[in-house]
């Protein structure tokens, strides 16, 4: 329970510091080149059954006001097979489908973002 409260507090702290027009403001000629962030998918860890233990950290650098490069290390785990859809298959969550342990995976991605117009993003 304490982990959940700590996690919710962390998410609220991270989201409360967001600024409007933080990417590029016309009134401010300087913007922060380096930034650290994460994703809202971290809220999936609040699930009581089969939480993914997902973590992601975005480390980014703004080349210009509209061009961004990020490095995103990630980790997650699976305790159930991925091919079973929780909405359309009654086998989801059944004990006989559970792995004898879990599968832990790690990933790293490098992303380029181009902000075209008012926050509209082209991401590769």
Helices and strands, with pairings:
Layout: H1 2-16, E1 34-37, E2 55-56, E3 58-62, E4 67-78, E5 103-117, E6 120-123
Antiparallel strand pairs: 1-3, 2-4, 3-4, 4-5, 5-6
Your description of this structure?
The chain is mainly beta. The chain has one domain. Helices cover 12% and strands 34% of the residues. Strands 1, 2, 3, 4, 5 and 6 form a six-stranded antiparallel beta sheet that branches. It is elongated. It starts with a helix and ends with a strand.
What descriptors fit this protein?
124 residues; mainly beta
Sheet of most strands? 6 strands, antiparallel
Per DSSP E runs of 2 or more residues, the count of β-strands stands at 6
Spell out the helices and strands N to C. Answer: HEEEEEE
Shape: elongated
Taking all residues together, what is the mean pLDDT? 79
Give me the Rg, rounded: 19 Å
- Compute the number of structural domains: 1
End-to-end Cα distance: 38 Å
Helix content: 10-25%
User: Beta fraction of the residues?
Assistant: 25-35%
Structural class: mainly beta
Number of helices: 1
The low-confidence runs, each spanning 5 or more residues with pLDDT under 50, are none
Give the gist of this structure.
The chain is mainly β.
